[in-house]
Every structure is written in C-alpha cells, then in structure tokens.
Amino acid sequence: MERLRNTELARANRELALAIERLKEANAEKSRLLDKLRQQSAELERLARQDPLTRLHNRRYLEENLEREFAAAKRYKLPISVALVDIDHFKQINDTFSHQIGDDVLRIVGQILEASCRGVDFAARYGGEEFALVFPQTDLPGALIACERIRQRIEQHNWAALHPDLKVTVSIGVSSDPSLPNHEKLLAAADEQLYAAKRAGRNRVCPAA
User: Fold this and answer.
1) Facing residues of 82 across strands?
2) d(C-alpha 40, C-alpha 48), whole Å
3) Pick from 27, 51, 97, 147: CA 20 to 30 A from residue 131's CA?
C-alpha cells in the first residue's frame, strides 16, 4: 500500500508538473499574441494619422493636435503660429512633367518641411498640394523667419535631378492670433494669407495682418 501510494503520488506530481509547464507555455503564447496585437494596433493607429505619399502627418492628426496646442496657447497666454504652404502651379507640373514627377515633388517638399521643423513644430499634408505647419510657442515674426527659410530651401532645391526643366516654388500664408475663438479660425486666417500670397505673385510668404 505504501509503495502504491508513493507510485500514485509520483505520477500525480509528474502530471502536475506537466500541467504547470503547459500552462506556462500557454501564458507565454498569450503574451506573444498580446504583444503582436499591440504592435499591430499601434501600426494601424500610426497609419491612420499618416499621409501615405509624403509620410507626413495627415489632416486628421493636424486637426486633433492643433486643437490641443491652440487650447494650451489660450490657457497659458502663449503665442502660436500656423502656416499653410501651397505648391505654385502644381497642376501645370503634373500636366507638363507627368503625375509621377508631381508625386516626387510632393514627397520632396514634405521632406524639406519635416527637416525644417524644430522638435515642438510639426508638418502635415493638408490636402492635394497644400501642407500645414504648426509652430507652438512661436510669435508671428518667428514664424515668418522660419517660413521664409523654408520657401528659399524649396526654391533652391536641385529640382533638375527630377527633370532638367523643372522648377518648384511655394506660396505660404501665416497666421498667429491665439485670441481667435478656435483653431479652425486660425487655419482660416492662414488660408486668407495664402491666397494673398498667390494674388501678389506667388513664391512669397504673407503674414496675417
């Protein structure tokens, strides 16, 4: 009886150890699956906020983050500036040099905008050939300096690498007024200045009055 009990106890211990090992493996597999799901979710969230062509933030990201930055500027009485950037005669670029060249121009302009941003700034594709720049804690003179530098970089870029006859310039409208009722009005003011830049001959930066 003693030997039988010992044999049964040893078998029970082996079965318990095996069950514990299987449970550990199941938990490890569950952890791996959860990590994979978290990574996939983060990637989907990133793609939902990224423009697929230029790899810049998209308009959804712009709206969400500009609303937050604008609210912070109003609350703490800090400056904030927004710029809208439009590629001059972009339809003509597509018609003359092909849509592939047009896509390359959009990508390169996006790269120049992103490279020109400080850590707190961000660039987004606003739609079509338009981009937006957000300059938190930056007043109008500071934003104008940054935008003029960007305008020059785009104009002076080696566009001949894409096509010998290609030239690219941008018009930029800038607004800086946290006293406006909301961030949509700030964007609208920048849009008005963008059209003022176009009416004045393009390839220039126009500030909000």
Assistant:
1) 134, 175
2) 12
3) 97
Query: Among candidates 150, 137, 139, which has minimal Cα distance to 204?
Result: 150
Give yes or no: 129 in active site. Answer: yes
CA gap 25, 109 in Å, rounded = 50
Asked whether the beta carbons of 106 and 123 are under 8 A apart, the reply is: no
Tell me: the pLDDT tens digits for 94-108? 999 999 999 999 999
Query: CA 121 to CA 126: how far, in whole Å?
Result: 15
Q: Is the dihedral of CA 5, 6, 11, 15 positive or negative?
A: positive
Cβ–Cβ under 8 Å, residues 208 and 140: yes
Given 69, 114, 129, 130, the catalytic residue: 129
CA distance 157 to 52: 23
Tens of pLDDT, residues 9-47: 788 888 888 888 888 888 888 888 788 777 777 666 666
pTM of the model: 0.79
